[in-house]
Amino acid sequence: MLYGSGVCVIEWSEKVREVLPKKTITISLSAQKDDGRLITIENWPYEWKN
Predict the structure, then answer these.
(1) Quick check: 25 and 43 in contact, CB under 8 A?
(2) CB–CB of 1/11 below 8 Å?
(3) How do the domains of the chain map onto residue ranges?
(4) pLDDT single digits (tens) 24-50
(5) CB of 15 closer than 8 Å to CB of 6
(6) DSSP state of 14
(7) 21 prior amide bond cis, ω within 30
């Protein structure tokens, strides 16, 4: 599932981070004091070199 051509969503991915593919895009949601949410997207669009 992780290395296919589709999308795989994993909750608590930090527990398996070492086995995730290089092309993994991480999306984090954090609660803010004003009841808002902070969305952080990492590795978009793929910040690695071949």
Answers:
(1) yes
(2) no
(3) 1-50
(4) 888 999 999 999 999 999 887 766 555
(5) no
(6) G
(7) no
